[in-house]
Amino acid sequence: MIGLDGGDGPEIALGVLLFALGATVGSFLNVAIFRMPRGESLVRPRSRCLSCGHTLGPLDMFPVLSYIWAAGKCRYCRRPFSPRYMFVELFTGLACLGAWWVFVQMRLGVMWPGAWVGVGPALEAALVFIATCCLVVVFFIDLDHYIIPDETVIIIACVGLVLDGLRIAAAGASEMVIFPERMAPAGQHAVLLPKSLVGMAMGAGLLLVIAVIAERVFKKPSMGGGDIKLAGAMGAILGPGYQFFAYFLLSVFTGALVGVVAMALGRRSRRDYLPFGPMMAAAGVAILYAGSLITPWVMGRFFAL
Questions:
Q1: What is the spatial distance between Cα 25 and Cα 136, in angstroms, rounded to a whole number?
Q2: Which among 32, 17, 14 is positioned nearest to 93, based on CA atoms?
């Protein structure tokens, strides 16, 4: 870390600013989670209490603190709000701070707001945070409505394409997938493909094959098209290597664990459908932020089986 004569004040100020920015985005995500499945506009009308219909003012919409200050209730009719709103804001605030920490602070040792960190790391942190926000929306919408909005999948895929483009611009062909192809009896040509495109095809293809096999075995649809699209989008970010397989295995193991716990608690039976999108979203966030730690751990245990 860069030495700071002014103590920890600038670091704390930047941390608070990043958290507040992320929590504010989380407030918007709460609107998106509620309105997108209903086909409503994300900007009109203004947010309101669903019980009394009163339009919420600035004091009611301050991320995290408004919920705590009002004890989780509407200030006008005193009906309780779901704590989910606060937890989404809290999570996205921490995710924004965590993106800076993982992709800028830990790599460059830079926390001073006025220090030059370069476009690459800061842009990578912003893109990862954008993908994380989309995964938060996927988590709750699929949990509530069993659908994954195409808009979120498209944004995640675009994040993967941009991140891959940044890596290729910085490192050249070494960041691409190389396929040797024989053009003539005496010659060979190297076909270069972006990892994001190969990962997208591999991710979507893998889940499509699993979906087809599962439907044949269980005689009913076992996986939605949204899951397949999301796998392709995450493949664009993670590429076609071990990191994607660790993400896939983590999603499956998490889904299996949640399913067993839900059946043990009587919340689900063996015939009930369990949405896979929330598991994919949770695993995606974990891999995006801690893939270098999780991937060796997951793959090591997989190959040890």
A1: 11
A2: 17
Residue found by looking up tokens 């195409």 in the block: 150
**What is the C-alpha to C-alpha distance for residues 63 and 28, in angstroms, rounded to an integer?**
10
Q: What is the pLDDT of residues 238-294, one digit of tens each?
A: 999 899 999 999 999 998 888 888 778 777 666 777 889 999 999 999 999 999 899
> What's the token pair of residue 298?
């997951």
Alpha helices in the chain (DSSP H): 9-35, 65-69, 84-100, 106-108, 119-145, 150-171, 195-218, 225-238, 242-264, 277-304
* pLDDT single digits (tens) 34-84: 999 989 888 888 887 777 777 877 777 788 888 888 888 878 788 888 899
How many CA within 13 A on the CB side of residue 147? 10
Residue indicated by tokens 């062909």: 173
Neighbours of 168 (CB within 10 A): 17
CA 225 to chain centre: 18
Which pTM was predicted? Answer: 0.88
Tokens found for residue 36: 């997108």
